[in-house]
Design goal:
Radius of gyration: 28 Å
Shape: rod-shaped
Largest sheet: 8 strands, antiparallel
Strand order of the largest sheet: 9-8-5-6-7-4-3-10
Pfam families: FixH
CATH architecture of the largest domain: Sandwich
Helix content: 10-25%
Protein name: FixH family protein
Low-confidence stretches: none
Number of helices: 2
Number of domains: 2
Organism: Spiribacter onubensis
Keywords: Membrane, Transmembrane, Transmembrane helix
CATH class of the largest domain: Mainly Beta
Structural class: alpha+beta
Order of helices and strands: HEEHEEEEEEEE
Length: 169
Amino acid sequence: MQTTVDNTPWYRQFWAWFVIVPPLTAVVAGISTVVIANRHADNLVTGDFEKVGLGYQSTSKARAEAARLGLSAEISLPRADGTVRLWLGGAHDYPQQLDVRLAHATQGDRDQRIRLVRVDGQRYEGRLPQAIDQRHYLIITDPAEVWRLEGRIGAGATEARLGAGAGAP
């Protein structure tokens, strides 16, 4: 009986690669998945929410305080980058500054924060860093975040009303 000995190196053997490639592919796919998940993490929940069971509930006392004070706001946004104008109404002391947050519905990197400065009486102005081309959530707060007004602004919209007696756009 004659036996033949295969003297080819291991890396030229079919069965060596047949055993090595599937686990190696799984490791590469797992690392790729982790990298993609970390680079593109979702930041979808904005506002004062807490996880209750399997869902989220709003726990905003600031929103209730705005309703108690009867606050309302009319905001005018430019079509391109420019000056944001806001009129604030209600029974309260008007702060020197307001914080406006434009939160994108699904992409956290498109969020914008604007600091508005009181011009006179109930009028505030600030600078919009970049134009709004998609739907955003509009959140207006005083610097101490004692009260909060929330609403939505659609793609291409230039005006919004928030608060008492204002319908969500």
